[in-house]
């Protein structure tokens, strides 16, 4: 049986405060009978369970165990009985895969006429269209799925074969995918596609494979011979890729190729965009006049943003407004660029214009808005909306069956199953319904779920939903013990896990404050945290908060109580922060944060700082994004 069907084991972990349900034991017995394939006993026990919220899991498993024998009518009946449910979607998906396997295309499209999200089922959708005579849609879909730089699922092969057999797939289609694969570094796919080219198209493929195997031949003393438009395009892709590691050599050689083989404007732009990006990443002054001359011609939003960030790093306040002005008008209105425009204008003694820009930035609730507000001594724009009154529990259980399932999973002790039900429910309701659910979750103390509701609904102004005071006493006790502002600990935890105790990152960090096993063990030893006895203890909230707050205290001590550096180190590790500080050559706080090399860490620091202001307000503390010492510190 599936993990979520391990109800008997989960009952052991049931919270002492949970209200017992008279049907739980009957459900448990029915589950055991179904697992043991005692179908007569199961049917007897299943009778009378309609009112129990989790019975859908029994009905699902009964059908899933007999998937090969199911009819479409049985699946549709389950979907009608449990509309918009997680398990209805799951059973439908599994049944669609069976229909694909059996090539029952008419039933497939009748059951799911839209284009699915799954890659496998998308290809099946277009195969079904082909089989039922809608070949134009099928061919368009085949081409859409084909033009991808990575490998496609084997389930797509019949679609591609049908397209090829009908004469729809051309050498140009193969060539375009080869270029995408080359860009993605998928050499095996390039080799596979090469073998599909016709004899007449092979010279272009030979050229691409040659530069794939030895790209440095392009920057040797003798120019490589290039013939035809396809090879010219391949050359531009190869030089653009090589620019990432050998920008100086590519800078020297690409004009020669341009003159000799007649590269098109688009091909030249591809090379120059790659060169511009690498030169800016390297923060080199080499070729700066070339960069600033060519960027207005070949740049796009990402490159203009990168150039503006380079001006910020160099504190080139005179040129910064001009680069900001090249961003799209809507982007220029973001608090980020209003802040930096104001910063540049004030550095040029244009205080009135700078104050106007900062005023616009300060009207927004985020890191840049709060930074502009602090520097201009304006109030923080919290823009908090009140929650609607929470519905009664009885109404919620009746109106949203998935709510009742979430409640029951929590009562049993399976937080992961509850979270899955809740997340799926939020995707099926209206915005107003979602706010009611979020309000009820907040009232019940389901704080990770109130946060989920705010994110799923983009209800950014409902700060109670987004920033609950979870485990308040534990955080405040640790903050007092360690001499840390509790608001910062709340902010770190909100960013790390959104207060989900069972959170686990792809690299293995666990719990509320997301600790790696080694970090947890070392911190427990250094701070004599005796509650930590086993790696799984990081999923115990009180233990995790002790460990995480103690580790953050280590980082604060390492960086002379500077939260900005300590927050960055909590995310990226202190060795990286030490290196960034060594190489920053004494920058102001805002310049240093803006140029943290890792986008993730940059966003992490900005979020934690601005979350801390919100938590300061909720805790009744004086509000400040950064302290005067942090603001005036030379990084």
Would you write up a description of this structure?
The chain is mainly α. It has helices at 7-12, 24-35, 39-46, 55-64, 72-81, 86-101, 105-111, 119-131, 135-146, 157-165, 171-184, 187-194, 202-213, 228-242, 247-262, 265-282, 288-298, 301-313, 320-324, 329-332, 335-347, 351-362, 367-376, 393-399, 401-412, 415-426, 431-444, 447-456, 463-466, 472-482, 486-497, 517-526, 541-558, 563-572, 574-583, 589-594, 599-618, 628-632. Helix 8 (119-131) packs antiparallel against helix 9 (135-146) and helix 13 (202-213) runs parallel beside helix 14 (228-242). The longest helix has 20 residues, at 599-618. The radius of gyration is 30 Å and the shape is flat. The two termini are 56 Å apart. Residues 1-18 have low confidence and may be disordered.
Topology:
Elements: H1 7-12, H2 24-35, H3 39-46, H4 55-64, H5 72-81, H6 86-101, H7 105-111, H8 119-131, H9 135-146, H10 157-165, H11 171-184, H12 187-194, H13 202-213, H14 228-242, H15 247-262, H16 265-282, H17 288-298, H18 301-313, H19 320-324, H20 329-332, H21 335-347, H22 351-362, H23 367-376, H24 393-399, H25 401-412, H26 415-426, H27 431-444, H28 447-456, H29 463-466, H30 472-482, H31 486-497, H32 517-526, H33 541-558, H34 563-572, H35 574-583, H36 589-594, H37 599-618, H38 628-632
Helix pairs in contact: 2-3, 2-4, 4-6, 5-6, 6-7, 7-8, 8-9, 11-12, 11-13, 11-14, 12-13, 13-14, 14-15, 14-16, 15-16, 16-17, 16-18, 21-22, 22-23, 24-25, 25-26, 26-28, 27-28, 30-33, 31-37, 32-33, 33-34, 34-35, 34-37
